[in-house]
Design a protein that fits this description.
The complex is a heterodimer.
Chain A (H helix, E strand, L loop, with lengths): L3 H4 L5 E5 L11 E7 L2 E8 L7 H4 L8 H6 L6 H16 L5 H29 L3 H22 L8 E2 L2 E2 L7 H23 L3 H7 L7 H6 L5 H4 L7 H4 L20 H24 L18 H6 L1 H11 L10 E9 L2 E9 L5 E7 L1 H7 L1 H5 L6 H9 L3 H5 L1
Antiparallel strand pairs in A: 1-2, 2-3, 4-5, 6-7, 7-8
Helix pairs in contact in A: 4-5, 5-6, 5-12, 5-17, 6-7, 7-12, 12-17
Chain B lengths: L1 H9 L3 H10 L3 E7 L2 E6 L4 H10 L7 E9 L4 H6 L5 E9 L4 E9 L5 E3 L8 H12 L2 E3 L29 H4 L8
Parallel strand pairs in B: 2-5, 6-7
Antiparallel strand pairs in B: 1-2, 3-4, 4-5
Classes of the chains: A alpha+beta, B alpha/beta.
Chain lengths: 398, 182
């Protein structure tokens, strides 16, 4: 078979894809140079959703900034909340109680499933599979009900705090989550029957947008996009944070690094996440949820109103210019978010506000590799490849 | 097993030992912070050190995690430490082979903002360096396509510098929706 480049005859046409195209899922833009239907050159442009999150980090205190992290990868805000407070806690040198670690782990895995479900629905919708979109949103709705009951919000969760979480799980949460992980694998099998051996789906995704493991590492790809190339790297295994070393799970990998493998990897990751969730629920420890460290966590209301120490602690944590005082230094902390390595590099000057907060977003580097996957392919593959990367503009541009 | 671990923890990370042997004159400081090796490298030798970290078979830092910068102009203690270099360019590297990280910092003076580009070593560096240029005005020499990436092309100033105000310099008020960016 001739490659797209070999078919080229030399007459170029420039096609602007985005920034407001239904299949870009957010405002990003690709300028495609075409010869007929073959892509000669693809130039991705970012920045349409730039909101200055990193600059804001230098003006908000450490707990206020959690609200900003919701808006990064808005498909899985709980993972961002988690990754951010973990970085601050490691810089502070505090460890949260076991129950808190387990609750965070539970929420991170549930949001991984929610993220992959939205990706699945929209990626399939882009390629014309409408039913999958409805099936995956039906399941995602159940998760969002759980998030809503736990955090009080569906999207702007802001659930974690430096040293703990907003509140303990609601009563009946375990039953709801158990119900979900019992029903979900069955529902996912329905999707498998719709897509995995579907002739059209395979034609549109198999061998489309491939990248080798070596190139993927060179481009800094992480998450499902990296694992689809066969590199079995998962930060939950490589650098187990929180309590990930206490649960067992497999790291699914692909072989060809194409859109189809990225699909399969994400599908299996959802099943693995359900396994982790079951283990977390089985071993959920009792005890305090939040850190006892009064310099970091707000005291409970009885203490704040009834004891002078409690009131002082409350004042110190809340008041401008006091806040959570993080020792001087810098720290880089990475977590495995649904899209890949989400890193926070925090520089502290010893005050209650970060001196510099750098976010290392997975989407930014995944999107950069897009031309490598597109060039030489066909114009209709753009949607398939872009969909398979799951680029989230909020995180891409910050 | 535990004894072995204890011995390992006391000794220096491999990367620091090897850098000390191969590039001692390039190092301005070295440390191990929370399990991550941190080195501060002279700007003239930065590329050589990065290349060594990537290509040495024992180290093999093949994955460039992040490139960014810090404007130290409001942090007197940091300024003093490295000869009043205003910016610190920070590279985070990861080795799949050794499963470990290293942070390379390069002080950059305000009167000479150029630094060799790492795009020849990692393709990931392309956009990361563009973002650092966009936000701080660090000039990466040898970069194939050093343009702004997040801010508009005609934007003036570098938003993440400490002297750039949070609410901007009136760009929002001056923005003309009819004429600009057509």
């Amino acid at each position: 078979m001739q490659s797209g480049l070999e078919r080229a005859t030399g007459e170029k046409m420039v096609l602007n894809f985005g920034p407001q195209h239904p299949a870009t899922h957010g405002t990003l833009r690709i300028v495609l140079e075409l010869d007929g239907e073959s892509i000669l050159k693809a130039t991705p442009h970012a920045g349409y959703l730039h909101t200055g999150f990193e600059k804001l980090g230098e003006h908000l205190d450490y707990n206020q900034y959690i609200v900003v992290t919701d808006r990064m990868n808005y498909l899985s805000p709980l993972s961002n909340n988690f990754g951010y407070v973990l970085a601050v806690e490691q810089l502070l040198g505090i460890e949260v109680p076991k129950r808190c670690q387990y609750i965070r782990l539970l929420m991170a895995e549930l949001s991984r499933v929610a993220d992959h479900l939205l990706w699945l629905g929209t990626a399939a919708l882009d390629l014309g599979a409408f039913s999958v979109f409805l099936y995956s949103f039906r399941e995602r709705e159940k998760l969002y009900s759980i998030f809503e009951k736990t955090t009080g919000a569906r999207l702007t969760t802001s659930y974690t705090r430096v040293g703990g979480v907003l509140r303990d799980l609601y009563q009946g949460c375990e039953a709801d989550v158990r119900q979900f992980i019992t029903d979900f694998p069955k529902a996912l099998r329905e999707t498998h029957t719709l897509l995995t051996r579907n002739r059209i789906w395979m034609d549109r995704t198999k061998g489309v947008g491939p990248i080798s493991g070596e190139d993927a590492i060179n481009y800094g790809l992480t998450g499902p996009c990296l694992r689809a190339t066969g590199v079995a790297h998962d930060l939950r295994k490589a650098e187990p944070y929180s309590s990930y070393d206490e649960v067992t799970f497999d790291v699914p990998v692909g072989t060809n690094g194409d859109a189809y493998d990225r699909y399969l990897v994400r599908m299996e990751e959802m099943i693995q996440s359900c396994g982790i969730i079951a283990q977390v629920l089985d071993n959920m420890p009792d005890g305090p949820v939040n850190s006892e460290n009064n310099k970091v966590m707000l005291p409970n209301k009885e203490d704040a109103y009834g004891h002078i120490e409690g009131l002082i602690h409350h004042f110190k944590v809340i008041m401008d210019g006091h806040g959570v005082e993080v020792p001087k230094g810098d720290h880089y902390c990475a977590t495995e978010s649904p899209n890949g390595e989400l890193g926070f590099y925090i520089v502290s000057d010893g005050s209650g506000t970060g001196y510099r907060i750098r976010i290392r977003p997975p989407s930014f580097l995944n999107f950069q590799a897009l031309p490598h996957m597109l060039e030489g392919g066909m114009v209709s593959d753009t949607v398939a490849v872009l969909g398979s990367l799951n680029v989230i503009a909020g995180e891409l541009d910050r | 097993m535990n004894e072995e671990k204890a011995v390992e923890e006391q000794s220096k990370p491999l990367v620091l030992e090897k850098l000390e042997a191969a590039h001692a004159d390039a190092l301005l400081a070295q440390d191990e912070v929370r399990g991550t090796a941190v080195v501060v490298v002279r700007k003239e030798r930065a590329y050589a050190v990065l290349e060594y970290l990537k290509t040495d078979p024992e180290l093999a830092y093949t994955y460039l995690v992040d490139v960014t910068a810090v404007d130290n102009s409001r942090m007197e203690s940091e300024l003093m430490q490295f000869d009043y270099a205003r910016f610190m360019v920070v590279y985070q590297l990861y080795s799949y082979q050794g499963q470990c990280r290293v942070r390379v910092k390069v002080p950059v003076h305000e009167n000479d903002l150029s630094i060799p580009s790492a795009t020849g070593l990692w393709r990931a560096a392309n956009w990361l360096e563009r973002e650092t240029y966009d936000m701080f005005g660090i000039h990466f020499e040898g970069h194939p396509d050093l343009r702004r990436i997040l801010m508009p092309d005609d934007f003036e100033g570098y938003p993440l510098r400490k002297d750039y105000p949070l609410r901007g310099r009136g760009e929002r008020e001056r923005f003309n929706f009819d004429k600009q960016n057509v």
